[in-house]
Amino acid sequence: MTASEIKVVCPDLPVWLETAEIAVQKNQAGKVPAYICELLAMYRRAASQSVECAEDLAERYETGDLPCGSCLHTASAWHAYAAELGSTKSALRLAHLYSWTTSEIDNVNSSSEMAKKTISNALRRNSPNTADLNSAASAAMLLLNGRVDKEGVEIIEALIDHKKFVAHPDFAVLNKMVRLAQCQRGNVSLSLQIASGKISEDSEFKAGIYKVLERPLPLVGLPNPEKVKETLDMEFPWFAVVNEQIYRQLVVQQYSSVPAFKLRPLLLAGPPGVGKTTWARRLSELCSVPFRAVMAGGGSDSMFLRGTPRGWSSSRPGAVLQAIATENVANPLFLVDELEKASPDNKNGRIWDVLLQLLEPVTAKVYLDECLQVPCDLSQVSWIASVNEIGQLPKPLLERFTIAVVQATGEEYFPVLVESVIRSFAKELGLDPRMLPALDNSDLDVLRRCNGPREINRTARMMIEKHLVNDRQHARRN
After folding, report:
1. Which run of H or E residues covers position 351?
2. Is residue 238 within 8 Å of 409, Cβ to Cβ?
3. Is the pTM for the entire model greater than 0.85?
4. What share of the chain is helix, strand, coil (3-state, %, to 5)?
5. What's residue 377's pLDDT?
6. What distance in Å separates the CA atoms of residue 36 and residue 41, rounded to the nearest whole number?
7. What's the pLDDT tens digit per position in 227-245?
């Protein structure tokens, strides 16, 4: 049954109240229990279009606070009647009842219709109270997370623009509604066109796969912030401060007009071997974004980032555009490792100078690749850099980063490190971690003497390989 087919008239007097009605008509009310007389009076007021009494009866039929017990069908009829009288509370409740009862299309449509009625009832009131606004907000969220038509979007937008709803105390609800309404309207698309024009070709350069940059490419959406933080805290507890920063950014990004994965530039500073690169790679996995790591140490110039100009036999775009074109995703995550070791030689341009353009939102939006020779929008690329020492980096570059210092791991993190190595090794082999041989106490004693996570990782893998070979040889002998 759809919402339009629901009979919005007062439900019939129940059989268990008919006797009381007859007794009252014969002036024998004294023979009727007081609470039955109270219910009869409530029914009469509801039949006279009392919204409060209709709501009360609907709730009593749901909870079973009646002599006949609970009846969801009758409760729905009373909710529909109360909603027709203008009750936002009953309209919202009926929308939820339809959405929870079954996933059949009729009930989905009924749920949407009742959600729209909830909002309409709230808007029809001259001065809706907080309860009405809360009900309308809940109905809007139910509608936006399900099936919403053009009429539904228009009703939600009218609610958002209502002078009282603008001051709704729940900032999260208001912003999420605005964002979802924009998405339903088609004002927000999780895609981005990288190249601002057509990529020209000549005898020295053929566009090839880079033609995809001329059309909108998808942006990876946002992950569950709580899940990301929970996993990072479990696997990298010594990164707790950084994990918290990432969590906050992911939460705030949910309120963005473009709810796609995007982090502020982050600089990880810490001694070698604490897991900076591994942490960044794991973050990209949890957020489902393409990941690229480039080594700044030993680089003599910036061509790998800014692209090789046409005229060279090795002419090609920069690493960022290569990644975007290859992955067909407009917001990858880049790690620049050992940034402080980049060559300061300015002969062919310094990496630091190119990064300044890529990290600044205004210049990243119109970044000119020397090979493609067309402005490209790289503003949705996320950047992480790692250094062992901060002091050698120029101040203008440091000012573009959020700096996070990662301390060396202590003994308290040893079990986590070993477990992480085993889990990672098993994943590379495509095995359940329980299928790998366990490390004995002597193995663990050796690992405790290792100098940092990198050495623990290398040594533990060698130990597991040794155990696997020994187990295989033992099995062959027997």
Report:
1. helix 351-359
2. yes
3. no
4. 55, 10, 35
5. 93
6. 9
7. 999 999 988 988 999 999 9
